[in-house]
Fold this sequence. Notes:
Blueprint: H1 5-10, H2 25-43, H3 47-54, H4 58-71, E1 88-91, E2 98-103, H5 106-127, H6 134-150, E3 159-162, E4 165-168, H7 169-190
Antiparallel strand pairs: 1-2, 3-4
Helix pairs in contact: 3-6, 4-5, 5-6, 6-7
Amino acid sequence: xxxxPGYFFANxxxxxxxxxxxxxxxxxxxxxxxxxxxxxxxxxRNILDVYDFIAPMVPLGYAAGRLGNFIxxxxxxxxxxxxxxxxxxxxxxxxxxxxxxLRHPSPLYQMLIDGILVFLILWPYARKAxxxxxxxxxxxxxxxxxxFFTEWFRVPDWETTVMGLPITSGQVLSLPMIxxxxxxxxxxxxxxxxxxxxx
Length: 199
């Protein structure tokens, strides 16, 4: 829906055919934020506290999802240099044989960097005293930056150029996350004098 809105508005039932792929993290992230807001309102909890509570666990779930992508031979990587020790032949999407060129195992990169590395940085931070919203904002920042980087190794859903530089759909969607996270962190820490740090 994010990548081909015209197609899905013309064919809305295609949205529900999840076996054809299309389970974008960015779209899921937006959906989870909406669900959190509704749940927080119903349970009379502060949505910022809910986000801070959930955020540290998201990278591990994401990592498991990317491992599943690798096992299912989804999300092929870009062409890799033959000298790269872990470059691999990716199964052909039609299920017959393999693609001709060696490729980066991009789901493993995203599992390790976007998932596990983000968790290893975020978890100790979440255990320390910090202002409300800081954990959720830090996750948003770390994931946005990690995803922007690992997109260079993945075959993009679509790609364009900005000021002569190639940029993928995943990078376009990650940039607002990074900007929003920086603003959220600035807002959270600017309130330190008004609100005690949360343990």
